[in-house]
Specification:
The protein is mostly helical and 57 residues long. The chain contains 1 helix and no strands.
Length: 57
């Protein structure tokens, strides 16, 4: 059952990731909830265009 639900929700997760991608010339880090101190340890920081951990402030 769990695998079925994961397969069913996969397109929605892909859509959510697409919505969180930066549009235009800005970077995600500029508006990310995790952009302070050592909260984010991603190597893309501070110039990330895509990020699986992105959460808008």
């Amino acid at each position: 059952m769990k695998v079925f639900l994961q397969l069913l929700t996969a397109p929605f997760r892909a859509l959510a990731r697409a919505l969180f991608r930066s549009s235009g010339g800005g970077y995600l880090c500029d508006t990310c909830k995790w952009d302070y101190g050592n909260a984010c340890t991603r190597p893309e920081r501070p110039n990330a265009k895509t990020c699986p951990d992105y959460k808008r402030r």
